[in-house]
User: What shape does this take?
Amino acid sequence: MLPTQKDKDTYEVTGYNGGRAWRAKYVDELARVITRHQPDTYAYDFRPGTQSGPAPFNFIYGAGHAAEISFFHGIGEGLLSLPFTQQNEPGRKALQNAMMDYLADFARGGNPNGQFSSNESGMAAMVKHRRSGQGSGT
Assistant: This one.
């Protein structure tokens, strides 16, 4: 599928830069616009740190569109049952629990960085976009 290392390197660079550009346009820019009307606006970037499945799936697919749904709901097997393996189960379950805690906090009080998610050691706070449109913080 990707015959040479050069092909893989090119794929990785273009995928990374394309993903960053997409986030800047369709997440960060949109969040800044929303903050004009709703000052407490949050966004997340789903990029799990564990392998997303067996090769070449882990490289080509990564954390693709809608991959986070089973993490927020605590169920599911991922695309075609490929990304969830015994090897990545411990990290996947920890991330799944943290994401469900963020969602529970957001549903209860409008802030994903509340009582439940504060118990998640080693997990970053959700990004809060400020009304001024200046960067982001927590």
Q: What stands out?
A: The longest strand covers residues 41-43. Residues 133-138 have pLDDT under 50 and may be disordered. The chain has one domain: 5-137. The two ends are 41 Å apart (CA to CA).
